[in-house]
Each structure stands twice: as C-alpha cells, then as structure tokens.
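S.,

Sequence below, as promised.
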Amino acid sequence: MKSPLSFWLLIAALGLSMVAAHAEKADRSKPMNVEADALRHDEQKQTSVFTGRVIVTKGSIVIRGARIEVRQDAQGNQFGLVSAEPGKLAFYRQKREGVDEYIEGEAETIEYDGRADTVKFIKQAQLRRYRGATLNDELTGQVILFDNTTEVFNIEGGLAQGTTGAPAGRVRAMLMPKPDDATTSPPKAGSAAPALRPSKALGEAQK
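The prediction came back faster than expected:
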C-alpha cells in the first residue's frame, strides 16, 4: 500500500493542481514601490527597467532580483518580469489573507501578472508555505504557477536539466498536515508519547 507522501508526490508529478490558500487580496490595489541601482524608463511604452539589487514591494508582496522590467497597461494593470543574477535565484514573498501565513518562492525568472493576478516561477522553481516562521509545505519543479484568483498551484517537472532539489523532469512536494488534524493532537494525560523512529519506506523512496 502506498504511503500518503507517495500519493501526493504522484499527484504533483502528473502536473495536477493543488488547492492553495487565499493570498492577501488587498495587495492587488496597492502601489508598486521599487528600489534599484539604475532605472531606464520609456514613457511611450509605459515600461521601466530596474537593474542592480532590485527590491519591489506591493502591499505584503516582496520581490528581489538582479533585473526587473515593470510594465503598465491602459487599464492600470501592472506586470513584472524578474531575472536573477547568474548562479542565483530571484525571490517572491506574499502574505495569506487573514492568517499569519506566507507564500515564498524562488526561481531563475519570476513573472508577475497583475491583470490575471498570477505569479509564475520559471526554472529551478521552489515554492514554500510558512505558518509564522515555521516551514509547512515545500514544492520544487521547473515551472510553478500560482493563481491568486482561483487559489490553485500548477506544478510542472519540465525537461530541463539541473533542477535544484528534484531530478530533471520531476517535481517534489513536502506537505504537512493541518494543525487541527488528529495526527497533531496532544497525547491524552497519562499516556506515553510515541517514540520516533526512522522510516525505511521513505529512505527507499529516495534512492
């Protein structure tokens, strides 16, 4: 019989969607603030290219990279293309709606689409969910699409080589149970806590 972890890994490897949590909805209407070493702005095309230790904030959103191109359409929607320095990864972080939880991701390239309200992590993509300061879920693959509107993650393994944390063509997922699950309930008074022991099944799965 397959373990629960193997079941989730199979779902992720098939590229199916995993329901995510609400992102901070107020972020969409907040102004975008950018800091960088240099800026090139094109008024006619409504584009700005920031280079050198770029930091973007938009409400609870924080984005960091070596180069960020920001574009705004006629309706005021903002779009961002973030590139990392060679050998490094660009960074994205956003708070969840109404709770002390955060979504945090890294990739060689990050695309932010204000109109569709999506964030795409491309190449060596990593996505993590934190409850407070505690890591809860972690996903890796070649491409991860986070849709704030439908509250869904789409994960692709891709065919590229050298994916950090996962073999080429595969994705990996570490998913923790919810805090109110029976598995996280405190032991009854007078009962001994179960002893921790290594999992042979998990070790075999990693070979």
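The two ends are 18 Å apart (CA to CA).

Coffee later?
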